[in-house]
Amino acid sequence: MNDYVHTPVLLNEVTTFLQIRPDGTYLDCTTGEGGHAYEVGRRLSSEGTLFMMDVDAEVLAIARERLQETAARKVIIRGNFRDMTRLLKDYPDTRFDGILMDLGFSSEQLTGTGKGLSFANDQPLDMRLDDTLKVSARDIVNSFAEGELADILWKYGEESRSRQVARAIVRRRHQAPIETTGELAETVATVFPARHTRIHPATRSFQALRIYVNDELNALDIGLRSAASLLKANGRLLVISYHSLEDRIVKTSYLALCENPVSGEPGFRRVNKKVIRPSDGEVAENRRSRSAKLRVLERVSA
Ligand SMILES: C[S@@+](CC[C@H](N)C(=O)[O-])C[C@H]1O[C@@H](n2cnc3c(N)ncnc32)[C@H](O)[C@@H]1O
Q: Which domains are present in the chain?
């Protein structure tokens, strides 16, 4: 029996495509509670090494404990994968057989750690995965100009009613600051007719604010290039994304890396040209997996 809240997505596909060698060196850039990391770690011998990175110290502590019994050498690094090169400076010659990015947030962060990511349970409006960041979602909704708010909702949430939602937020905050996820969700919902769609009307606005607060798309763009440069020959980079903005960046970066390899260095190939999606069975068991897309890049031998 385990108490882990998060169910790892595409777990079989991840372990298969990583082609794990017991003495290999692997990096999980988004360790979370360690669901994927555990399955990688337990396939490694004492000659193998698993680097476990996450921007959130709380979930990383859970993963550390979870992997304690595995034989592999473990290196735990708290930080943002956009800074991967700097975070790995104490391991200058390390190159990886496999690197995983399972983007977004974990179910534990959604429901447990009070990061204010969800409207499903009312929490203080925060959304910072990294608690050292200065600006929270609360600061944004209560202080940004209406036009700026609308732009964020449009750009990062693809919210077609971005202007109306921004106007509703500004109107509401004139009465009192918006402090909780529940208050924000309620405010956004006023813009939509009841029973508008199957998903909650605040879903896109919450996604937009989370991406903006954590600067997720820039981090991904930078992190992907750093990760690719750290692969050994035949090493693989696996990225699981959960919405079209992320997937577009992964796809474009992979294509660019394949077409324009750094001169003098081995190039890359896309292992799967079509994205890998979860099976119907997985989606039925884990609703969170329904939007997952896995793309795999491989460094070719010199
Ligand atoms: C979907 S969860 C990972 C779940 C994990 N694979 C598992 O199976 O338990 C995503 C994790 O990535 C972390 N994260 C998101 N963006 C990050 C970034 N730029 N750098 C490092 N960690 C990040 C989050 O804090 C979260 O723990």
A: 11-108+216-299 (3.40.50.150), 120-214 (1.10.150.170)
